[in-house]
Design goal:
By secondary structure, the protein is mainly β. 10% of the residues lie in helices and 42% in strands. The chain has an eight-stranded antiparallel beta barrel with strand order 1-2-3-4-5-6-7-9. A hairpin with a 7-residue loop joins β4 (69-75) and β5.
Length: 149
């Protein structure tokens, strides 16, 4: 005699398993380190998607001059894996960097940021404008992983 599960039992089993199948929301709030060794701490994200924090780069021509810098940003507020942008005004050089990216949950359930950046240095005049902007090329986007929430 072959036994089959009743539709009610099957429905109950699915209902109990469903919460574990839901996508966890990726949160920018916390401490992050990118693949170049730079560290970032992002505070709570407001209801409007606004956030601030600090950024400590690991990349500079004169490493002993590196100081922690303030970052200001905004993220989408309706997505489980939000897009975001933030600006870092470097405290130890005449430059500003903007980042744009998305917060993802990877296959292991870890939060990961995928970003691109654009750095603008101070130019003395319009003739030097061409060399004042650096970019993160399309072949090498930056990744960051969360250290702690």
């Amino acid at each position: 005699m072959v036994h089959t599960a009743s539709p009610l039992l099957l429905l109950l089993s699915l209902a109990l398993l469903a919460p574990g199948l839901s996508v966890r929301q990726c949160s920018l709030t916390g401490k992050w380190i990118n693949d170049l060794g730079s560290n970032m701490t992002i505070g709570d994200v407001s209801d409007k998607g606004e956030f601030n924090g600090t950024y400590l780069t690991a990349v500079d021509d004169v490493p002993q001059n590196i100081m922690e810098s303030i970052l200001l940003g905004i993220q989408s507020i309706t997505d489980d894996q939000p897009t975001f942008g933030f600006t870092v005004r470097t405290n130890f050089t005449e430059s500003t960097t903007v980042f744009t990216g998305q917060c993802f949950m990877d296959r292991r359930g870890k939060e990961v940021l995928k970003t691109m950046w654009l750095l603008r240095s101070n130019a003395d005049d319009t003739g030097d404008d061409w060399k004042a902007t650096s970019e993160d090329g399309p072949a090498s986007p930056t990744s960051a992983t969360k250290l702690e929430s």
